Amino acid sequence: MLHESSFVPPYDAFFKNKLASAYEKATGIKVNYEVVSVGSLLTRVTTAAENATGADLTAIGFNWAFLFDQKFVDVSDIAAEIGKESGGWYESAQESVVVNGKWKAIPFGNIGQLMNWRTDWFKEAGYTKFPDTWNELLEAGIKLKKAGHPFGFELGHGFGDNHGWLYPLLWSYGAREVEADGKTIVIDSDETARAIDFCRRFFKETMFEDCLGWTDVNNNKAFLSGQISCTNNAESILWGAKRDFPDMAKVIDQSENPKGPKGRFHMLNPLCHAIFTHTKDQKAAKDFLRWLMAPPQCSAWLDVAVTYYQPFLHVYDDAPMWKVEPRNLPYRDALKTSHLPGWPAPLSRAQSESVAKYVVVDMFAKACAGKSTKEVIADAQAQLKQIYKAG
After folding, report:
1. Residue 370: left if φ>0, alpha if ψ -120 to 50, beta else—which one?
2. How far, in Å, CA of 48 to CA of 46, rounded?
3. Interacting residues of 9 by C-beta distance below 8 A, sequence separation 6+
4. Is 119 helix (H, G, I), strand (E, B) or coil?
5. How far apart are CA 351 and CA 167, in angstroms?
6. Measured between alpha carbons, how far is residue 379 from residues 173, 244, 368 in Å?
């Protein structure tokens, strides 16, 4: 079983030391849990899929279930059993694994992206709770920047924290790249223009110039060094602060993304498990996944990471792990409004290409750098027409 190295080391250790040995003791089947470095899993999955050799099972993310549709086993049968046993699946779980009506992977947990903010500095600016709308957050950010505590949101070519707030911002204004038919390009709209105009002002009045070139490590470093008062990130900021800056950790909170005119949205970042079609004993692989997702095993593995992975099964909605750190609860609640880039269109290669080419990220970033709203929308429109025509 292939897995990308977890941000929470005990998570990987628990599988190797507890789960694998328990399964071998119960069945006589030895499970080799191979951990690869962060960022290298897709390459390994691609190699295994193309050569039909190597691992039997693998962790996957984003829309890989679609990209490797023909290389992954249909696991609809055990998905139905797992859902029935554990309170049912969140709808967002199916968005990343159901391809042509078939479950091509079993969702494990989401690695959510939410607002991380300094309660002490917000309080000094007159805020005792996180602003509910983007406009209210803008007002707070203007005050905080004047007080020497600017915001910092990624606008560069990273892999997560840029998409993590820009897609939800776009959707919250009622805008999107493509219609649900997966063909009709609709980025050129008044809603998109309003989202861009807001983003430009949000950048200029609450942040500093460097954010245009930020990647995923920059906002974490800036937050933990006291440079910024608010950013969009996974739970890793609070985790890191607890470990290295305990006093700062006391004044960090986490909240759902603000509402726009059309509601509140979040980014879907799912961790799932799939079985390769080249696996010699597919029944054994299914039996193992089925066992792994049963509450005794699954809950213990989730508990080790203390909500870093937000489970897609409703049986865990009020699990003990949520009481360990109540500040993490918004990550659970955000599952109801989380989607993959390209939503509401179904999974497609064009969707992947749009993300890989940073179409939406660059549309906002170029506007923040000074290009007109009309120009950046025209650029995005032209790119998407080419991408979806080819797709």
Report:
1. left
2. 6
3. none
4. helix
5. 13
6. 20, 43, 15
Residues in the chain: 391
Provide the token pair at 379: 């650029």
What does the DSSP assignment read for 56-107? SEEEE-TTHHHHTGGGB---HHHHHHHHHHTT-B-HHHHHTTEETTEE-SEE
CA 322 from centroid of its chain's CA atoms: 19
- Please tell me the pTM assigned to this model: 0.91
Q: Element (H or E) spanning 219, and its range?
A: helix 216-224
The Cβ of residue 90 has, within 10 Å, a number of other Cβ atoms equal to 22
Report long-range pairs for 348-351 (Cβ below 8 Å, ≥24 apart).
348/66, 348/182, 348/391, 349/66, 349/67, 349/391, 350/178, 350/182, 350/387, 350/388, 350/390, 350/391, 351/63, 351/391
Amino acid at 250: K
Residue pair 257/167 in contact (Cβ under 8 Å)? The answer is no
Tell me if 272 sits within 8 A of 74, measured CB to CB.
no
CB 146 within 8 A of CB 153: no
Residue type, 127: Y
The tens digit of pLDDT for each residue in 37-49 reads 988 999 999 999 9
User: What does 282-298 look like in DSSP terms, one character per residue?
Assistant: HHHHHHHHHHHTSHHHH
Q: Which residue do the tokens 């990343």 mark?
A: 96
98-149 pLDDT tens trace: 999 999 999 999 999 999 999 999 999 999 999 999 999 999 999 999 999 9
* Rounded alpha-carbon distances, angstroms, from residue 79 to 102, 293, 365: 10, 9, 40
> What is the SS3 assignment for 149?
coil
* CA distance linking residue 380 with residue 169, whole number of Å: 16
* Max CA pair span of the chain: 64
Query: pLDDT tens digits for 326-336?
Result: 999 999 999 99
